[in-house]
Amino acid sequence: MSLLLDAVLCLLLAGGALAAVATPAPRAAVIAFMGYGLLLGLAWARLSAPDVALTEIAIGSGISGIVLLRAAAGAPTVPGAGSKALAAAISAGVALGLAALVLALPEPAPSRAADAAAALPATGLGNPVTGVLLAFRGLDTLLEKIVLLLALVGVWALARDPHWRGRPEPLFAGPAPAPSAFLARVLVPIGLLVGVYLLWAGADAPGGAFQSGATLAAMGLLALTAGLAPLPRADDRRLRVVLLAGPFGLLAAGFLGWATAGAFLAFPPGFEKLVIKIVEIAITASIALTLVLVVLGPPAGEERP
Known about the structure:
Structural class: mainly alpha
Shape: globular
Helix content: over 70%
Radius of gyration: 21 Å
Strand order of the largest sheet: 1-2
């Protein structure tokens, strides 16, 4: 039964990928891509990687799908046959290159999993993924937060000079229908609790800052769409403090480790878990707000509701 499920899932993944690249209409192609992301999350769950599955569904499919849908709405034309052929050739080349690298790995493949597991108790964490991301690959995690912030800077750079201090365009024109507003009032509190749980549980179970941030971002977008909260202004200083809290909080923890543990991005002995959770809270808030602002797009003027 398990083998049959995996075989069906592989066929659905191949079909979803083909639909995402072969569908001529941009909007339909994005919807196919979002469906493919959900299937990919299920595949990661079958591979016993629930952290990756949650991230793929929340960010790879959900948030990215919304951004692509907004981009597809403004797409003037469908790409020509030449552009599609070039994209297909590049994609096939990348896939073959990755396959060659994987097949060239020695047997068994090199792994530092045992070393990471042996050092995990020193962090006070029970989730090896969180331990690796913050304790053993802290510099990579810091750079990921900076890249996400730079992506928002790129989005805001698209605003016209007279507008960049204002608010973005609403996601949908006109007031939200009454059923949508009611649904948002019901779902947003539940989603906030789920997001906080994913953050707190991430220390010992699947979850963490990215999954929690994406969930909170989705709730924020739902509230904005339903008119339960005003669109944020780009020149709001409180907004900018939250945006910088994640990368600068992790950077501050890195220098604290330098002073107390003798290494950059180490953690004070005896306070590892406490510092990690404080940093994760700052990272979660920064990720959630950044994702919301990326989806909303660049500021479009002063007089926005």
